[in-house]
Amino acid sequence: MEQTRIRNFSIIAHIDHGKSTLADRLLEVTHALQARFLTEQTLDDMDLERERGITIKSHAIRFEYRADDGRIYELNLIDTPGHVDFTYEVSRALSACEGVLLVVDATQGVEAQTVSNLYLAMENDLQIVPVINKIDLPAARPEEVAKEIMDLLGCRREDIVVCSAKMGIGIHDLLEAIIARIPPPTGRPDAPLRAMLFDSVYDPYKGTAGYIRVVDGQIRPGTKIRFFSQGKEFQVDEVGYRRLKYFPTPELTAGEVGYFFAGIKQVSDTKVGDTVTDAAEPADAPLPGFVEIKPMVFAGLYPAVAEDYTQMREALEKLQLNDSSLKFVPETSVALGFGFRCGFLGLLHMEIITERLAREYNQNIINTVPNVEYHVRTTDGRMVTVDSPAELPEAGEIEEIQEPYVDSQIFAPAEYIGNIMRLATERRGEYKNTEYLSPTRATLSFAFPLSEVIFDFHDRLKSATRGYASFDYSVPYYRQSDLVKLDILVNSDPVDALSVIIHRERAYRYGLALCDKLQKLIPRQMFEVVIQAAIGARIISRATVRPLRKNVTAKCYGGDITRKRKLLERQKEGKKRMKQIGTVEIPQEAFLAALQIERS
C-alpha cells in the first residue's frame, strides 16, 4: 500500500468512555471481521478485561476503508490500555501513530485520564481528532462537553465529531475525519531498517510475536534483526499484520504496522519501546523514548499450602511469558514459608496477576501488604534500594529515607472541592493549584506520596464526591520523608509479612488499628497471645487474645480449698510452659485485613 493511503491511529479516553465499543463499531462498519466474530469488546480477549470493562493488554488491528473519494485506505488501529498503571505502554503505542481519536463521554465530560492521555499525545506531536461519544443517552449534554473540549484543545466546534459507538451514529463521519485529518506516515523505504516495538505476546507454537511499527526500511522473512537495547540478534521467520488472527505477508515496509516471529523464546528479549534494525545494515541510532519498565509496587506472594510452591513458580513463569513487566524473585518469610517477591506496575496490575493465578492456574495465594520502592541513604554514604520492610537497614545505620511522590490531577464538580481537600490532607497531599474548566467543574493539582494513593485512595475519592471525581497521576519522583519501620510481634516473635514502612505520624494509629483487627482474627489458644506493634525497641500498641480456660477444679467436690489452689497453680505453670514452646497460626484473613486498614 502506498504511504499516502496509510493511516496509523489510536483511541485514547478515560475509563468507561466507550473506547472499546468504538473500536468494535469501526471494525463492523469497515467489514474487517465477519459478524460471527464480533462480540462486545472484540479486541479485549481476556475474561478479566470483559468483566471489568477495561483494556489490560494493547492490541493492533488492520482494516481497509473505501472513502468518499473512491480510494481504499489502510487503517491501523493500535488499541491501548486505559489505566494509569500502563502509562509507558500507552506512550509507546502512541509513538507508533500519527494521530489519535480523543473520545469523551457526552454524559461525563472531560475527566482526569482524558487530559493525561492528551498530554501524552501532544508530547508525541500527534494530530488530535476530538470525538464526543454516547450522544444517544438521555443524560447526554454534547454542547456543554464540546465547550469543555474547545477550552482544553483550543479547537473549533466544527472540528469535534459527535457519534454514538453503541448505536453506530456518526461512524462514517468519524472515518472520513481520520482520512482527512490524520497525516500519512513519512518513513523512507530505502533507508536502513528501524522499527519500533510497541508490544509483544507469547505464542506457544511460534515463540514471541513482536508488534512493530516500521519507521524506515523494510522487514521480510529471512532478515537478520538486532535489538538496540540488548544487542541480541534473531532471524525473522514470518511477518504480517493482525486482524484478530495473524495474516502473513511478503514484507512490511516503512509506515506499516504489523508483527514478526523470529524464534524468540523469552518475552523479556522483546522490550516495549525497543528499536529493531537490520543486523547486516544497522541504523546509526535507535528511535527515541525507550526506557526499561520498572515495577512501582512490590508484594510477597505465598502459596497457602507449602507443597504448592513449585506449581506457583511454574504459574508465574508462564504468566511472565505474556507479561514481561511482571518481575519476581524467591523469598522466605518466617510466618509464611517459601514464596516470591513480585514487582508490579501498580495495584491494578497486582490484582490482575493474582486473579489470573487463581483462575487460570488454580493457585490459592496469600499476598503480603504491598509496598513501594524506597531509596535509603546509609550513614556510610551508600544509597540502598528497598522494596520490602525486611530489607530496611537498622535505624542507627539510616541517614535518610526517600519515598516516591507523584504529581496528580483530580477532576470533580466544584461543590466537592472541600471534601477533596480534606481527603488530600489526610493522605499527606501537597496542594498546588486549582483550575476551573467551567463554572461547575474544576481540576485540582496535588503532590502525593505514592504509598498513600495506591491502596484505597480512589475508592475514598469516589465516596467523597458521590462518584463524580476522577483521578490520574504521573511518573513518580523521589523526596525525603520521615519514615519508620513498624513491626508486628505475636508473643514477642516478629511477623515479617505484616511489617510496613510508614510515616512516623501515622504509625501509632495504624499500629493500634492493626493490633485490634488481629485480636479479633487470631483464634484463641490454651495460652495468652500478646499482639504488639513496635517501632524498633519501642512498643506503641498492644492487644491480648485471652486464653481458653479448662475447668480443672470441676472434679473437686468438697474437701479443703488448698486442693483447688494446687490444681490451679499447676494449670498456671503448664500454660506458662505452653506459651514458651507453643506457636500461633495466623489465619489468611489477618494478612488481608492489613490491606483494608485506613492508614490516615
Describe this protein's structure.
With 600 residues, the chain is of the alpha+beta class. The protein has five domains: 3-181, Rossmann fold (3-Layer(aba) Sandwich), CATH 3.40.50; 194-278, Elongation Factor Tu (Ef-tu), domain 3, CATH 2.40.30.10; 297-368, Elongation Factor G (Translational Gtpase), domain 3 (Alpha-Beta Plaits); 375-481, Alpha-Beta Plaits; 484-596, Alpha-Beta Plaits (2-Layer Sandwich), CATH 3.30.70. Helices cover 27% and strands 33% of the residues. It is built from 14 helices and 33 strands. The strands form six sheets. The protein has an eight-stranded antiparallel beta sheet. Strands 22, 23, 24, 25, 26, 27 and 28 form a seven-stranded antiparallel beta sheet that branches. Strands 2-3-1-4-5-6 form a six-stranded mixed beta sheet, with helices on both faces. A hairpin with a 4-residue loop joins strand 22 and strand 23. Helix 7 (309-322) packs across helix 8. The longest helix is centred in the last third of the chain and has 21 residues, at 561-581. The chain starts with 5 loop residues before the first strand and ends with a helix. The mean pLDDT is 82.
